[in-house]
Amino acid sequence: MLDTGFEPDICKLEDLGLPSKDDRCTSMFSVTFPTEVQQLAKHFLRDDYVFLAVGTLGESERYLIFVETKRSADYIGSLLSQKKFRSTTMHGDRTQQQRHQAVQDFTSGNCPILVATSVAARGLDFPLIGYVVNYDLPDSSDFYIHRIGRTGRAGLLGKSISFFDPGRDSDRKIAPDLLARLIEAGQEVPEFLKKYADGGNVGFYNDGQSSRNTDVRDGHSHFVNRNKAAGPSGGTASAGAANEDWD
Question: Region Disordered: start and end of each range (predicted)?
C-alpha cells in the first residue's frame, strides 16, 4: 500500500488519535520489501524495529528439465552454467559417482536446476520440484506422464511446461495422447494441438515472427507458440525403461 499511493491515507489514520509509534506496536507484512518501501515504512515504525525475513522467494524450488539426448543434456547444462544458473546434468554416460553427485547437488539445492534424460523420470525421489520442463517431448505418453509426475507430489503444487515441435515425428505421433490427457485433467487445450491430434496442419509463424499464447493462471499449463510450441501437463502413470541416445 505504501508504494501504490496510499501513504497519505495511512498518515491520516495516524492523525485520528493513534498513539505515537513509540507507544504502539506496529506490524507490517509484505511478500517483498524493496528499499524504497522500507524507507517509507520507517515513518511508521520505531527506530529499533525488527526486520524478519521468512525464507527467500523461490529458494526451495527445483527445476527439472527433460531432454531426449545426452548431447542436449550436456549442451543445455553448459549453457545454463555459462549464464550463471547453478545447474547439473544426468544421463546414461555419467558414471555412478557423477550421478550420485548430481542427485546430491540437486536435492540439497546447491544446483536447483537438473537437466536430464529420461533416466531421471522415475525411481528417484526428488523433493520440492516446482517445475518440470519437457524441452524435448518423449516418444510415448507413459514417459510424458512419468516425467511430469516428478512435480506436484505429496499434496504440493507444481507446474509442467512442455514444448511441442511439429517438425519431430515423435511429437506429432504423441499429440492425440496429449490431447486426451489435457481433456481428462480439465485443462485448456490449445488449437494447434487439436489440429495435430486430428492429423491436420497449422502454421507457427506470422511474417517471420513467432507468436505466443500463454495461459498464466495458477494451476494451468503454459503454452508457447514458436518453433517448439509448449504442450500440456498433469497425471501419473508407469513407463518402461528409458531410451536415450547421444544425438
Answer: 207-247
The per-residue pLDDT for range 52-105, each reduced to its tens digit, is 876 555 556 889 999 999 999 999 999 999 999 999 999 999 999 999 999 999
Domain(s) labelled CATH 3.40.50.300 in the chain stretch across: 62-231
Residue 62: which of 154, 141, 162, 152 has the closest Cα?
A: 152
Q: What is the CATH number of domain 62-231?
A: 3.40.50.300
Cell readout for 211 is 507468436
